[in-house]
Design goal:
about 50% helix; alpha/beta; 15 helices; 13 strands; about 375 residues
């Protein structure tokens, strides 16, 4: 049974890696990896950590390419690869343009497509953009939906997806996280003794412009207010982020701007942090499992389970709100402990094994 796993960005690689390795260990499968390299360097870092090599590589990334250009180039490359490989089933993870185009290319060739991390929704087509539309479109073309939670399953059912095609598996990011967290990777940043480390990430398109400016101004106010905090900010290479962070944050002695961490060091950075400010979906899943409070620099999220659990809080990108909510955790021990309880609603580390068995059953049924 020939299974192709398609990966475009680092988050996809992290969440797909346990699935690829589970298929490799399972008899009766021939698994191959197609890397579109929607993010080149970051993707390569993640694949290397999990000892995965791509069998096919489109090397699609070009500086400054538009979404239409990316989509068109992906379609041509993925379509040709599917024609050459002729897989029995294709899996892609999440909500990137790679995922949407993979689903469409599979539909055109009548190849079954399975959607990993299916059913996440904000119910706002432009937030996050273009990811919300990507996952809806991919979901409507999938034959198997691997939903991480019952909330995600409910979203799919409300969109008239056949219940027989939906499987609540947990999120494979917990599989990857737990195996990685067992190791201690150097983060390459010397946080002074006695300092509380605040980890910051921001990269989403909707936070370009004034939102990232507000975030930077809030960071400045926080380091001026609290002499015992040290900011570590791995800055996304997109110039819409890099230009602003360099302008506002580069010269403060307790703010360290660094290149994006490899996944191993990033997990170690989360473990070392006191609180995390982020707009990342993956961090909303990972940090609660490590007992780290997360303040989300967004007004909505497709991952409401951790908000309901009380370990993640949506705070948006207004400067005052960021300072206020971070200050609560920095000042109030009981408020901090309530968010740092180490509860994760996203999985038990066995999601990948469940997915392999579901695929085995599915391919066995359609071949009969």
């Amino acid at each position: 049974m020939k299974v192709m796993c398609v990966i475009g960005t680092r988050p996809e690689a992290i969440k797909m890696a346990p699935v690829v390795n589970a298929f490799k260990k399972s008899p009766g499968f021939d698994v191959c990896v197609l890397a579109t390299a929607q993010h080149r360097d970051l993707l390569d870092q993640a694949l290397s950590l999990f000892d995965i090599k791509s069998d096919y590589d489109l090397n699609i990334m070009q500086p400054g390419q538009s979404l239409p250009e990316l989509t068109a180039r992906l379609m041509v490359g993925i379509d040709k690869t599917l024609s050459d490989v002729k897989p029995d089933l294709v899996i892609a993870q999440g909500d990137t343009t790679t995922v949407f185009v993979t689903a469409l290319a599979c539909f055109y060739q009548k190849i079954p497509f399975a959607h990993l991390e299916a059913g996440l929704r904000t119910h706002d087509l432009y937030s996050p953009y273009p990811e919300e539309a990507n996952r809806i479109l991919a979901g409507n073309l999938a034959c198997l939906h691997f939903a991480p939670t019952e909330v995600s399953r409910g979203n799919l059912l409300r969109e008239a997806i056949d219940d027989d095609k939906i499987f609540v598996t947990g999120n494979t990011v917990i599989d990857a996280l737990l195996s990685t967290a067992e190791k201690n990777f150097p983060i390459g940043v010397d946080v002074p003794e006695g300092m509380r480390m605040v980890l910051v990430t921001s990269h989403r398109r909707e936070n370009f412009g004034q939102p990232i400016i507000n975030t930077c101004k809030a960071i400045i106010e926080l380091v001026n207010k609290y002499e015992d905090i040290f900011i570590v900010f791995p800055v996304h290479p997109n110039p819409n982020i890099r230009k602003v962070t360099d302008e506002y944050l580069q010269n403060h002695p307790r703010i360290k701007l660094v290149a994006p961490f490899d996944y191993g060091p990033f997990v170690s950075a989360m473990k070392k942090s006191f609180i995390i400010l982020t707009d990342s979906g993956g961090v909303q899943e990972e940090a609660p499992a490590l007992g780290k409070p997360v303040l989300v620099l967004r007004r909505d999220t497709e991952r409401p389970e951790a908000v309901t659990e009380g370990v993640v809080k949506l705070i948006g990108t207004e400067m005052h709100d960021i300072v206020e909510q971070a200050s609560i955790l920095l000042d109030d021990t009981s408020a901090y402990q309530e968010m740092a309880k180490g509860a994760s609603p996203y999985g038990d580390g066995k999601s990948s094994d469940r997915i392999v068995q579901i695929v085995r059953n599915y391919l066995g049924q359609i071949s009969e």
